[in-house]
Amino acid sequence: MKAAYYCGNENIQVEEVQVPDITDREMLMKIKLACICGTDQRIYRFGHFKIPKGTKRVLGHELVGEIVKVGKEVKGYKEGQRIAVAPNVGCGVCDMCVQGYSHMCPDYDAFGISFDGGFEEYMRIPSEAVSHGNVLPIPDGMSYEEAVLAEPFSCCFNSFQMLHTKPTDYVLIIGAGPIGAMHAILHQRAGAAKVIMADLSSLRLEQMKAFGEFTLIDTSKEELEDALKRETNGHGADVVITACSVPSVQIQALELTAPMGRISFFGGLPSGRDEVGLHTNLIHYKELTVVATTGSSIKQYRDAMNIIASQASDIAGLITDKYAIDDIQEAFQHAMSGKGLKTAIKFD
Ligand SMILES: [Zn+2]
Ligand SMILES: [Zn+2]
Which ligand neighbours the alpha carbon of 296 most closely? Predict the structure, then answer.
């Protein structure tokens, strides 16, 4: 089979290797579709502390496919079943894990980081991922394109749950990429008064029109603060989500938020650029709530799958580009160019 190994920064090699063996408590899946996430791009460029130098690793944690082999002791799954796999696998015994927050486990494993991930034809599903409930059947009628988005969607859902959006809320999302779009879809479904998206790229804003009735602000053409005032009758945003990795946007978010509003710092900042001069008096005098989330729990992953299954919005359209595994270098270059929305590796 073919597997694409990350072998060091900006270096991915496609190799012909043996199909992985599995034990009686594991499963083997044939990958059908795996998306390139911002995390994959960061690892590709800068590495990851859980991938020691000199180790090669198959990246990709947004993945779906079909079970081709079930270990003798595994119950509840069968060959031929279409599945999606939640990427974070906690130790199962720490306080975070027993509360269901396996993504906050200090000793976590993850597909595409400490386990080989989705950029290979066949992927071994280790026993702990099987027994912790990471493997989820894809509902009938749901395409692989929709199901593969459950992972990033679940991360947005984690943030959404912290924000308690109400029907009276003006919601501002800064960053009109695929993540911004998923936040927007969630808040619109929740009945927010208005969902406003801001971005410097008119191209990206244009693409958002396919996913809902959003108010779009092109910040290359007008000041965000002025446009926001106009769109909220001078009120400001009750909810602001930073769906980008730009430090100055965090500073700006405090200014744009209405009194008693909530802010989600969703996009992590590049390491070394995360000391940001925030005007904390804005938090104080406006009684703002600032939250942040990273990743998602397995429960949130399951919820995300159900939300995708029941919604009309054509979320699959977020995948704008598909590449074969042999062209994975090109796929990474494309993903990093910011031209399309989501880039995927598609297998036969
Ligand atoms: Zn991801
Ligand atoms: Zn744990």
Answer: 1
